[in-house]
Design goal:
A hairpin with a 2-residue loop joins strand 8 and strand 9. This protein is mainly beta. The protein is globular, with a radius of gyration of 21 Å. It has a five-stranded antiparallel beta sheet with strand order 1-2-3-4-5, with no helix packed on it.
């Protein structure tokens, strides 16, 4: 969990686990002041004239491993570990205090919340019991649900899918909350492959990404409008970032612009709205290196990344793209305890595209399997 510390005139404020709601109107994180490790949830309001924060402390300090997902209605869903179970609840401000609505519990070796789908209509959790993984609906905002103000039903979380093996990650391939991509280790010590899970067809699972039989192929980020996929794979002989397009017959490419020997690159936000132009889709990345954390913007249609200086007090890995190409980054510093800085990234400029050989070269270009689920969403150019 990435932690960011802000020095004020009198004390140190630390924040961790910063997440944003599906529509970008709210965010939430765990916060502590001073050195006593008394963590509490904090909600950020981002869609008003000026951003501001609201503390949501409970009856006792939160464990720093707790997870938060802010909802478009301003409430915050929290996952807490209590003994051998994980409890879920909705938090909301009630004047001077914090209201709390329990949503039930889940058990498992590994339990965590998934990122909210683009529709913002629900919150899901992923569990692993040592043999299989399962996807659960923890909270639904569907107006047809008799418990829309709380959880998915009187019985607590509702199982939507069960997948053999240990699943990680979690990226949405559409904006309706139907198609979920997960990285799966089918057997202990075996290769990791990305699968797609159809949550409206009983959890039907299909292969999504398999570059070579023995390589570890993970999906790090998916942009549903353009179909752009950003992957990490060791198929080229070392862990590299690459990109492909959902449903396209073109191969995965591993650009040199995303190969930094002394840094670890992680994509954290993608520009929406590029329906027929995945090559123009802006991707924001962090680079962890010997000199700290750097910020970069890269587009698949360009050979070079644009390196930027993040704002003072930026929470690394937190940010949101707008369809118009503006990257909004949250920050907190001594002079501004809650702020948003907007970067208007330059539009993509045409660059010469190298001609690919008839046979892909394993060190640079590898085939992306034809996505069996491409019909579930828009078909991008090149498919």
């Amino acid at each position: 969990m990435t932690t960011c510390a802000t020095e004020t005139a009198t004390e140190t404020v630390r924040r961790a686990g910063f997440t944003t709601s599906a529509d970008g109107s709210y965010a939430a994180c765990l916060t502590t002041v001073g050195d006593d490790d008394s963590w509490y949830p904090e909600r950020w309001t981002l869609d008003g004239p000026e951003p501001y924060t609201v503390p949501l402390p409970g009856n006792q300090p939160e464990d720093p491993s707790s997870q938060l997902v802010p909802l478009p209605d301003g409430r915050v869903l929290i996952r807490r570990r209590v003994a051998d179970r994980h409890d879920f609840a909705l938090l909301y401000p009630t004047g001077p205090g914090t209201g709390e609505l329990p949503l039930g519990s889940l058990r498992g070796e590994d339990v965590r919340l998934l990122p909210p789908p683009g529709s913002g209509d629900g919150v899901l959790a992923l569990t692993y019991d040592g043999t299989a993984s399962a996807v659960w609906l923890v909270h639904s905002t569907d107006s047809t649900d008799s418990t829309a103000s709380g959880g998915p039903g009187e019985g607590g979380p509702r199982k939507l899918a069960e997948i053999p093996g240990h699943c990680y990650g979690g990226a949405w391939l559409d904006r309706t909350g139907r198609m979920l991509a997960l990285d799966r280790e089918a057997e202990s010590g075996g290769p990791v492959k990305t699968v797609a899970v159809d949550l409206r067809r009983g959890g039907e699972t299909s292969p999504l990404l398999q570059i070579t039989e023995d390589s570890d192929d993970r999906l790090l980020l998916a942009e549903p409008d353009s179909g752009l996929l950003v992957v990490r794979s060791n198929a080229p002989g070392e862990d590299r970032l690459g990109w492909g397009v959902l449903g396209s017959r073109d191969p995965v490419r591993f650009p040199e612009a995303l190969r930094l020997p002394d840094s670890f690159l992680t994509p954290f936000a993608a520009q929406p709205g590029q329906i027929i132009s995945p090559e123009a889709c802006g991707i924001a990345l962090t680079a962890e290196g010997p000199h700290g954390t750097s910020l970069a913007i890269w587009r698949p249609g360009q050979r070079h990344a644009l390196w930027l200086t993040g704002p003072q007090g930026w929470l690394p890995g937190a940010g949101l793209w707008t369809a118009g190409g503006v990257l909004r980054l949250p920050y907190a510093c001594a002079h501004c305890p809650c702020g948003i800085v907007a970067y208007e990234a330059p539009a993509a400029e045409p660059e010469p595209v190298p001609v690919l050989p008839d046979e892909p070269q394993p060190s640079a270009v590898l085939p992306l399997q034809k996505a069996p689920l491409a019909a579930a969403g828009p078909v991008p150019a090149g498919s």
